[in-house]
Amino acid sequence: MTEPLLTEIDHVAIAVRDMDAAIDWYVQTLGARIAHRELVEHDGVEETLVAVAESYVQLVSPTREDSAVARFLATRGEGLHHVAYRVQDCAEALEAVRRAGNRVVDEAPRRGSRGTMIAFVHPKSSFGTLVELVQEGSANGKSTPPQ
What we know:
The protein has 147 residues and is α+β, with helices and mostly antiparallel strands. The chain contains three helices and eight strands; from the N terminus they run E-H-E-E-E-H-E-H-E-E-E.
């Protein structure tokens, strides 16, 4: 039996066209707390993390027409974009996924928001769901968004 690679759910990402409207809905309707908001220039997105216990709902909105999220919204509309799982070591987890014969989006881990290291597994290998592997920057593997 293979050792578990996943330690927790980091976030569930939802692609939205209007970030402010989505934030307002989560705050006003659900009483949610916004934990973090960041512009991720290299991915062409803005993200907002809505705190839910030890995990997040990540709202993502494109800042460029050529971003993956912009293409997603154009073809599929708003909704579930990906599920992200915390791992102890992103490079090790990505290699284990590849060794098991799965298709990956990222050939090597790269910087994500909040000082994380991330890599994506192609949805054709994961039953139609884009999967993100997230290695947190803190020593205990818990998410620690900047204040």
